[in-house]
Amino acid sequence: QVQLVQSGAEVKKPGASVKVSCKASGYTLTTHHLHWVRQAPGQGPEWMGMINPSTETTTYAQKFQGRVAVARDTSASTVHLELSSLRSEDTAIYYCARQANSGWFSFDYWGQGTLVTVS
Amino acid sequence: QSALTQPRSLSESPGQSVTISCTGTASDVGRYNYVSWYQQHPGDVPKLMIYDVSSRPSGVPDRFSGSKSGNTASLTISGLQSEDEADYYCFSYAGNGGLFGTGTKVTVL
Questions:
Q1: Which residues of A touch B (CB under 8 A)?
Q2: Burial of A65: CB neighbours in 10 Å, binned 0-12, 13-18, 19+
Q3: Predicted confidence (pLDDT) per residue in B80-96, tens digit
């Protein structure tokens, strides 16, 4: 069965960087785009960016341009999100989500989430 | 780009219907038929309920339906059940990325 398993919670100081990983199993990583979504406490989700693991092409939300990077390691079936210049407003749960077979930019499987606290 | 606009909360009795609106612009909801809807229970991960405006993934009850008119998409839940009490978020492709809605808390009275 399809699973996305993310790395554990992180606590970072303002100005630091964080790297969150998302390991895919139950399917071939290169067959589906992989997205990153974050959700601040008590807020709605926010789309951050995506990668086509087959071509390594990335697209990022304008808000995060310049301080976000998504990369893939096909040998480990893992996608990484790195967010730099962290500030308190970046405190959130970060999710990876697989783009569905059917439905452009819809997300059928989600990771369990990684809490990133900036303090 | 601003989040898509949803009503903050809706309440209805079991067995009744509720419709959640999701208003965007001609650059997102109005331009593309790539609107999806997610259900999120407290402390849980979002779950895909509708994709491509009105298609239902396998396993989602047919009580859930989606539609779109102009810049506004809608999710209708018919025959409300207690387990439908949750937060609901719309999401739209916007050409160079995507936007979530502000979220609607549905309460089953």
A1: 37, 44-47, 49, 59-62, 95, 97, 100, 102-108, 110-113
A2: exposed
A3: 999 999 999 999 999 98
